[in-house]
Specification:
By secondary structure, the protein is of the alpha+beta class. The protein has eleven helices and nine strands.
Length: 331
Amino acid sequence: MSGSTATGPSEGVPDEPTVVPVRFEVAGTEPDAAVRDLAGIYEGKQWLSRRTEGEFSYRYTAVGDSELSMRRSTMSGFLRGASAPGDDLVMSWLTAGSGIPDTLRDRVPLRVGNPMLFPAHRDVVFVATDYDQQLVHLDRRFVRDVAAEHFDVGTRDLRFDHLRPPDAVAVRHWRDALGTLARALREGGTDSLVWHEAKRQTVDAFLRVVPPQLDRLPAELLHPRQAKLRAAVEHIHAHPEDPITIADLARVAGLSVRSVQESFRRTFGVSPLTYLRQVRLDRVHEELLARDPRTVSVGQVATRWGFAHLGRFSAAYAERFGEYPKQTLRR
């Protein structure tokens, strides 16, 4: 993927990413060529493109470097494809046409002029038709470095709510930052100090539009003796949407399965899987508060977070939050 970084060997110290320029363009007038070129950029699979009304054409451009690049994708035609998690966070918005970034789970369409974070943390299948799309690719490691200046990120993976409704002031700040970034690229190029500073300002603006979701971890984990248990807990908070087993937590923590079970019970009074269920209930609560009851149901959100039996889910939710999930969604 073009947003990945290359590393070189360094004796005695961790490898540092090498920032390399990104500049390329692909274009054509045949659906088969579009699949070849665009799927190649994103290491995609099962991609399909076809004509709609009128003549088919596509164009994709990228400029910047491996930490941050500005891109534009246009197509007179239809495109569908599967995408796996990558090295980049991708913010995108339409200036024309239509598209749905995730047809498998969220099914939330892109809206013209409205920036939206691509759900790059999981496998998705997207569709787009007769579109003109702007994209910004941000290297995850670079975003983490900038985020660490403003947030207590610890050792956790950064987690973002890609469905978070954008704040109008934050969006204006984001657009201003992109304007500054484009000028820096024209005037100084990717080797200049002005480009370096503009990149960091753009990441700052990105973090305003989609602030990282950093759960406040239990105070019991702050002691150095709890480092291994903290690793397991951080893994739960970073990946609650994934299938997680006690064996997974044991591997992350460097403990035996029995030690993980005993550590959770001794520290939190619950089993590891009960703790995981509580975190997932918290995620459901966050999403119900943020979503529009006209476009989503409690059942859809609960199922997305792994709750198959809605009756038991509703009872557990009410016990944790003092209200039923339908009440939360209708606020």
